[in-house]
């Protein structure tokens, strides 16, 4: 199962409205307008995400679990993996045009975004995993104990100084509270694809 990361180990990129420990988990209330994005399509730079980051060692992985109980436009939670202000990855579940979708934003100067609808995940526990091995971060996710789904393979320099942890944003509203239930580190994935 890996090593539990204490919530107190991380440092916030931007302080949320409220943070409360609860039964081993963490309730985080996001500020209205919080977001992470650089330039592409929208033309703006937002770096107001609430990401609780600590050092991610090379050849390791992090997993963050949270309850998918939010439904407003662009509500989002998952993992944030940061090299610097212009190089970062966020991955998790975001509400887009009325639908919960699993996806990732990979940013290297400019952001790109991919989404895949997961309407059957609503109301359940989601785990997002970022596995750093060699020159790549492999993002996988699952709901409850269902099989892992591959979300994204993104470049991540093997010698970079990386911080990572849980994050959330509420670009369009006040009052979003995410219930994070677990944060842990593990060994990285042994391979990208299962053996055939």
User: How many distinct helices?
Assistant: 0
Q: Please state roughly what percent of the residues sit in beta strands, choosing from under 5%, 5-15%, 15-25%, 25-35%, 35-45% or over 45%.
A: over 45%
| Order of helix and strand elements from N to C terminus | EEEEEEEEEEEEEEEEE
The overall pLDDT, averaged over residues, is: 94
Contiguous low-pLDDT stretches (5 residues minimum) are: none
Largest sheet: 8 strands, antiparallel
Q: What portion of residues is helical?
A: under 10%
Task: From the alpha carbons, calculate the radius of gyration and give it in angstroms.
Answer: 15 Å
Given the C-alpha coordinates, what overall shape results?
globular
CATH level-1 class: Mainly Beta
Task: Give the number of domains.
Answer: 1
Cα distance spanning the termini: 25 Å
- Content-based structural category: mainly beta
Tell me the CATH topology.
Jelly Rolls
CATH architecture: Sandwich
What is the number of strand segments? 17
Pfam families: DUF1349
Protein name: DUF1349 domain-containing protein
Organism: Nocardioides potassii
């Amino acid at each position: 199962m890996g090593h539990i990361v204490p919530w107190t180990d991380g440092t916030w990129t931007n302080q949320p409205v409220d943070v409360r420990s609860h039964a081993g988990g963490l309730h985080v209330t996001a500020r209205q307008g919080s977001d992470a994005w650089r330039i592409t399509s929208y033309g703006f730079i937002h770096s107001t995400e609430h990401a609780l980051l600590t050092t991610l060692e090379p050849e390791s992985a992090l997993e963050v679990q949270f309850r998918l109980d939010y439904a407003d436009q662009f509500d989002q939670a998952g993992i944030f993996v940061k090299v610097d202000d212009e190089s970062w990855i966020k991955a998790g579940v975001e509400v887009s045009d009325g639908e919960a979708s699993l996806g990732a934003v990979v940013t290297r100067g400019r952001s790109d975004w991919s989404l895949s609808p997961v309407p059957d995940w609503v109301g359940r526990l989601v785990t997002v995993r970022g596995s750093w091995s060699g020159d790549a971060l492999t993002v996988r996710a699952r709901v409850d104990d269902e099989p892992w789904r591959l979300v994204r393979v993104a470049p991540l320099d093997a010698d970079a100084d990386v911080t990572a942890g849980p994050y959330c944003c509420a670009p369009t509203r006040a009052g979003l509270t995410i219930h994070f239930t677990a944060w842990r580190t593990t060994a990285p994935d042994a391979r990208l694809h299962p053996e055939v």
